[in-house]
Structure to design on (1352 residues):
């Protein structure tokens, strides 16, 4: 197999101080522009995978073992400075609860500026234009008043769009979306899914989509991985998974009994 | 002159070439003087300040304890002891240049005797009801007339700093070696040389030192620390622990100058109106009981354990430091447990199962109050507690803060016995009239009596009045010796010990002649000099 | 770690209780031939300025301190609880409590302590005198815990289970006894436990200022007065023993309490 | 935005009410402080009566209870009248205007207070923040332990220790205050830093220092305001014993001496001052809390 064409190749084991072996050699591989769905029950280790890839797990007190290669670079041996440059720039994340992910004390403008300043030397005026365009693309108002508002003045759906805007501001190669719709009502959720699909289509962003919602995964993803108690139990393209057998049922089975 | 001879000797003792001019002497005083007015000096720190800045007519030499001329070149005391004529030095000026004359002495006496001022120095002149007269004979002669003869009045002028009648600076114009330059509240008093000080070393005007800085420092530990760091030049009134530390370091000059006038005493509350049970009053009223307590106290242990030997067992109101007035025939009450038990048995006390009971069966238990915060005193109380336990007496130690203690001993009389320090400013027994007369406010065990409660107090009253009216020192000594004997015999106050004057100084300081009288190290401040410090 | 703390506390407590058997001498016996003695076989921690055995004094002192601090803590917590309950009963009372708490933190209470001591009979046993002043100290310490308890009470009063109780027609006193009291117990006990080391420290501070337990009765605070001179510390390191024990015990108490809080 | 405009008048009303309470507490503080001094044993006693040189007349004169103490209510009424004119009365034991005494010493106290507070704050703050940025478990434990041990040392002992090391009262204050601040700031920083938005900021690759400033400190500002208020009153309370122990010529030492001399006017003034600071600190804490509630 040619490793260079891979965007991400990982073999991850992870531990928490009081809970060792949360992940037991979970192997994932993603191509550029691919959407991979990661499915599992609560507590199966899905979120740990999401945190382990950009090496953020250490911030939550965990440790990662194994190998993570991203665009040919070894993330396990990368310095903290290199990792910082990667995060938000090449690998971005969208977290579960959009309200909590925004700083309650800062205006949206400031928060977007901070994300811009993290990786660019250009003045924020330039970044602001880009951000406004993106906000408009997300279906949000992009006027000054909106930028001057505080997170508490947004709805949850708006907040998630802002978070996604922040995540794609630097056109990352990989977007890790950890249950981005679980806090949303069904209508908003489907809007967000559409948004992710359009990002994938227009910017070629690869997405690691983590969820326990089978239908969405089947709908959105090119490939799917199923994780249970820290082990990978199923892994393959969606065509394969859903092509031959009565689709969602088989997957659900895999989830429940494996 | 005798003083000059003494200074000459001291100067010979000092190493090195000759005295150096200039430099700043630094030492600590305990508190900021309540008032800098010389007539109102009421604490050791205020008196030190007055000593350094004030000019006096006569000075009691702190080493020889003799009277020496200062601003008064000579004087005559009339035969009847009612008048003193001072012949003043001429050509002397106050620090601001105002000339000094007999008018200033008259003015000083007038201020001092102001009945509303309540000056301690002024009060010690007050013997009768009639006022003191000051008569200016001419510019350099002044006569002081007393309504009735008071022996030892001359010595009192050692505490009278002369004020200027005419100077616009009022009491800030001084005649002493230094004048106040700056006062930083709670922090220090900065003194600089008085440019017009009248004494010379033969050529130049004294003092040798340019300045004195009096740091206000209550904490003795800090004072010691500063001394060790070289921020201070001298220490006096140290306790034994601090002295041992200085000695062990071996870097500073130090001396145990021998027993000072200060001492520790314990007295019984003999006030008949005190709110105490009658049987307790009967114990304290019994001479046998008081003497028994005294004989049960191991004074030697107190001196050895608490003061590491730098103290002497107490005998009476004056220690041996007071060369003239101390009664040489008296010895401290000896530790003698058997004698104590006999004395108690004579009064019907008996020991039952380790506790002493009086003839009516009351358990003998009483308290001693003392001020909190004085470690040596608290230790002494604890030691006496153990000593009395040998007689079966239970002594409770109660420490109170000072105002509460004073209230009990002067106002409410709600105490049984009291352990306190004794400070003597004056060497003459006349300074203690208020202590020994039964009508005195300072009669410790039973103040302000309308008529003497006991025959021995009546006898003390008679003796004290007789010695005060007599002008013959030898006769006065005989009378006061008898007072000391009565107090020794009756033991209303137990004299426990007298502390030694422990002093230390920087090796750079010369001409030191430590005295046991205050101010112990700086009494000859105009002759002190510092070597090798500009 | 927590176990170690508890074991140490238990050991100190047991030793202080058994002081009569463990201590080689009485706390007041003066060996006047050996004042300021070095540590030796007969005096494991040396002797103090009066020749009293420091080890024995440390043991008896522990007993005094470990009696005084919890009694003061108990007084303060009980008082705080009563005041907090009163304050929770009406808004007016609550404002009064908060104002009083502000006041209590700034008044010169030292005078009250002095007055209390002056009112005691002169021949009152020294332990009784100390108990009275520490009881008073505890009574003055209600303000802090009371604020905490009031906050918790208000939270409980606004909670669903109280609403439910009210909805089922529960009366005020019943509400307080049946529904609120059990919820307050862990809080009150935590406040009590946290107050003990605080009063141990208060006793030490008072002792260092010379306002503590009267002589010759030892307490940790009065033993600390030996530390007023540094050279003693350098040449006689064993004078540090009371300070070390005090700090250890306070640390263990804090440790045990904070670990306890985590468990709750 | 809407919420703000509705809050304003209510805010004003509550501020007015609070100020009224503040004044009432202050007045009560003065009279209670005065009553405590008046009741204390030894009130009206002048130590000078022990001077054996004084005549019976002088002793009797000095033993009179000072006019201030004869009727506390009247004294207090006159005092309040004087206070409005800026006259703080005269010290009994020092015989000088309290205003002059305070003016002489306030500078020293404020300097040590400010220096001690600043030292404690800066140290507590920077240590807590550095621990949050670097997250080394060992360091965390070591520093928490050190601060914990400091917390277990009696304050008077700390002051004595600083004194022996030749330290200033400021150093002693810092040593007393630091562990208390650190404990609070550390847990505050811990909570603030574990907030999801901080995590998100890390995920966006923002720099550690900027995260600390904008995402950790900024949201905690109301709490820090509350802590600042409490810390000032804590520091003021600690200054009196520290200055008394360190023999520093500040207000604390003055109060200590005044307490020993039962100096009613000095004590009443300082009680008022301390009450004002304490009440203001609690007010600040309340405002901080309100801000946080409005904020979230």
């Amino acid at each position: 197999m040619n490793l260079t064409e891979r965007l991400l190749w990982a073999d991850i084991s992870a531990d928490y101080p009081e809970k060792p072996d949360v992940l037991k050699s979970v192997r994932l591989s993603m191509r550029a522009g691919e959407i991979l769905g990661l499915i599992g029950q609560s507590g199966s280790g899905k979120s740990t995978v999401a945190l382990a890839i950009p090496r953020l797990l250490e911030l939550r007190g965990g440790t990662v073992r194994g190998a993570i290669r991203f665009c040919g670079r070894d993330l396990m041996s990368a310095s903290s400075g290199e990792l910082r440059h990667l995060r938000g720039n090449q690998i971005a994340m969208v977290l579960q609860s959009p309200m909590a992910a925004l700083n309650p004390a800062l205006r949206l403008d400031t928060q977007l500026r901070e994300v811009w300043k993290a990786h660019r030397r250009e003045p924020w005026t330039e970044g602001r234009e880009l951000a406004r365009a993106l906000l408009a693309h997300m279906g949000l108002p992009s006027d000054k008043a909106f930028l001057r508002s505080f997170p508490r003045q947004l709805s949850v759906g708006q907040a998630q769009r802002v978070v996604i805007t922040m995540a794609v501001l630097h056109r990352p190669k990989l977007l890790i979306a950890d249950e981005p719709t679980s806090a949303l009502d069904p209508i908003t959720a489907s809007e967000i899914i559409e948004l992710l699909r359009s990002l994938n289509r227009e910017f070629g962003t690869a997405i690691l989509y983590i969820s326990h919602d089978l239908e969405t995964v089947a709908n959105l993803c090119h490939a799917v991985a199923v994780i249970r108690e820290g082990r990978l139990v199923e892994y393959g393209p969606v065509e394969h998974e859903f092509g031959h057998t009565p689709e969602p049922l088989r997957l659900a089975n895999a989830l429940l009994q494996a | 002159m005798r003083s000059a001879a003494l200074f000459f000797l001291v100067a010979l003792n000092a190493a090195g070439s000759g005295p150096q001019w200039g430099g700043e002497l630094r030492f600590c005083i305990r508190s900021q003087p309540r008032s800098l007015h010389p007539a109102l000096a009421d604490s050791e720190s205020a008196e030190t300040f007055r000593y350094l800045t004030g000019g006096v007519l006569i000075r009691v030499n702190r080493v020889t304890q003799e009277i020496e001329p200062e601003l008064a070149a000579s004087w005559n005391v009339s035969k009847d002891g009612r008048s003193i004529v001072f012949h003043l030095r001429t050509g002397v000026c106050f620090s601001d240049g105002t000339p000094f004359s007999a008018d200033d002495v008259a003015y000083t006496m007038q201020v001092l005797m102001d009945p509303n001022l309540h000056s301690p120095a002024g009060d010690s002149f007050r013997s009768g009801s009639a006022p003191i007269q000051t008569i200016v004979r001419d510019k350099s002669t002044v006569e002081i007339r007393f309504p009735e003869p008071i022996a030892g009045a001359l010595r009192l002028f050692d505490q009278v700093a002369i004020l200027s009648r005419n100077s616009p600076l009022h009491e800030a114009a001084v005649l002493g070696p230094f004048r106040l330059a700056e006062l930083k509240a709670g922090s220090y008093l900065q003194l600089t040389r008085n440019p017009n000080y009248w004494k010379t070393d033969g050529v130049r005007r004294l003092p040798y030192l340019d300045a004195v800085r009096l740091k206000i420092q209550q904490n003795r530990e800090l004072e010691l620390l500063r001394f060790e760091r070289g921020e201070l030049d001298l220490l006096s009134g140290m306790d034994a622990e601090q002295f041992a530390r200085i000695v062990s370091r071996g870097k500073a000059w130090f001396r145990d100058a021998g027993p000072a006038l200060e001492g520790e005493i314990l007295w019984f509350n003999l006030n008949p109106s005190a709110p105490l049970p009658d049987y307790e009053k009967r114990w304290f009223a019994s001479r046998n009981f008081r003497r028994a307590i005294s004989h049960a106290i191991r004074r030697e242990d107190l001196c050895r354990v608490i003061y590491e030997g730098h103290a002497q067992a107490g005998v009476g109101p004056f220690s041996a430091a007071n060369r003239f007035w101390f009664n040489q025939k008296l010895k401290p009450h000896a530790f003698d447990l058997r004698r104590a038990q006999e004395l108690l048995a004579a009064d019907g006390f008996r020991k039952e199962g380790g506790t002493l009971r009086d003839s009516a069966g009351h358990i003998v238990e009483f308290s001693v109050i003392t001020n909190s915060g004085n470690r040596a005193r608290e230790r002494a109380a604890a030691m006496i507690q153990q000593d009395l336990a040998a007689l079966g007496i239970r002594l409770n130690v109660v420490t109170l803060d000072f105002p509460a203690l004073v209230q009990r001993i002067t106002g409410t009389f709600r105490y049984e016995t009291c352990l306190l320090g004794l400070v003597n400013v004056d060497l003459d027994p006349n300074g203690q009239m208020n202590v020994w007369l039964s009508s005195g406010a300072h009669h410790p065990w039973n103040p302000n009596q309308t008529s003497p409660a006991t025959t021995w107090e009546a006898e003390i009253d008679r003796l004290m009045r007789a010695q005060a009216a007599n002008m013959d020192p030898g006769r006065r000594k005989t009378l006061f010796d008898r007072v000391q004997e009565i107090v020794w015999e009756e033991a209303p106050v137990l004299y426990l010990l007298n502390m030694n004057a422990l002093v230390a100084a920087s090796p750079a300081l010369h001409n030191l002649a430590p005295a046991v009288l205050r101010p112990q190290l700086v009494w000859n401040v105009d002759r002190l000099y510092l070597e090798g410090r500009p | 770690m927590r176990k170690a703390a508890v074991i140490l506390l238990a050991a100190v407590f047991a030793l202080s209780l058994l002081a009569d058997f463990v201590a080689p001498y009485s706390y007041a016996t003066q060996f006047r031939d050996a004042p300021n003695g070095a540590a030796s076989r007969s005096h494991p921690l040396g002797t103090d300025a009066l020749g009293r055995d420091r080890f024995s004094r440390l043991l008896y002192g522990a007993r005094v301190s470990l009696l005084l601090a919890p009694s003061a803590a108990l007084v303060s917590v009980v008082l705080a609880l009563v005041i907090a309950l009163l304050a929770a009963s009406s808004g007016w009372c609550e404002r009064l409590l908060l104002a009083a708490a502000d006041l209590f933190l700034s008044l010169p209470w030292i005078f009250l302590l002095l007055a209390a001591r002056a009112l005691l009979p002169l021949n009152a046993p020294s332990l009784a005198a100390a108990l009275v002043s520490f009881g008073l100290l505890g009574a003055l310490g209600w303000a802090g815990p009371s604020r905490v308890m009031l906050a918790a009470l208000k939270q409980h009063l606004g909670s669903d289970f109280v609403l439910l109780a009210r909805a089922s027609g529960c009366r005020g006193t019943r509400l307080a006894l049946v529904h609120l009291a059990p919820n307050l117990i862990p809080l009150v006990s935590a406040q009590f436990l946290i107050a003990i080391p605080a009063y141990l420290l208060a006793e030490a501070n008072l002792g260092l200022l010379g306002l503590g337990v009267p002589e010759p009765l030892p307490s940790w605070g009065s033993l600390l007065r030996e530390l007023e001179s540094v050279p003693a510390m350098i040449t006689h390191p064993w004078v540090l023993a009371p300070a070390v024990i005090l700090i250890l015990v306070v640390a263990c108490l804090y440790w045990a309490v904070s670990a306890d809080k985590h468990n709750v | 935005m809407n919420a703000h405009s509705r809050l304003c008048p209510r805010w004003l009303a509550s501020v007015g009410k609070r100020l009224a309470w503040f004044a009432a507490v202050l007045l009560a503080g003065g009279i209670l402080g005065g009553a405590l001094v008046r009741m204390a044993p030894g009130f009206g006693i002048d130590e000078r009566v022990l001077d054996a040189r004084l005549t019976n007349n002088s002793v009797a004169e000095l033993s009179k209870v000072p006019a201030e103490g004869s009727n506390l209510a009247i004294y207090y009424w006159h005092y309040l009248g004087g206070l409005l004119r800026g006259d703080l009365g005269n010290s009994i034991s020092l015989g000088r205007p309290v205003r002059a005494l305070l003016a002489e010493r306030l500078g020293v106290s404020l300097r040590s207070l400010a220096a001690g507070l600043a030292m404690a704050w800066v140290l507590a703050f920077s240590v807590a923040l550095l621990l949050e940025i670097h997250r080394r478990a060992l360091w965390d434990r070591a520093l928490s332990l050190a601060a914990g041990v400091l917390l277990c040392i009696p304050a008077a002992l700390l002051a004595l220790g600083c004194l022996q090391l030749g330290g200033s009262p400021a150093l002693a204050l810092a040593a007393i205050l630091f562990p208390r601040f650190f404990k609070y700031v550390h847990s505050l920083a811990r909570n603030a830093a574990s907030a999801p938005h901080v995590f998100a900021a890390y995920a966006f690759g923002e720099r550690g220092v900027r995260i600390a400033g904008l995402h950790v400190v900024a949201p905690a500002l109301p709490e820090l305001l509350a802590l600042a208020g409490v810390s000032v009153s804590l520091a003021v309370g600690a200054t009196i014993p520290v200055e008394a122990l360190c023999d520093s010529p500040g207000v604390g030492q003055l109060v200590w001496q005044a307490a020993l001399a039962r100096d009613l006017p000095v004590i009443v003034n300082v009680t008022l001052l301390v009450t004002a600071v304490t009440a203001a600190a609690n007010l600040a804490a309340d405002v901080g809390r309100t801000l946080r509630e409005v904020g979230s």
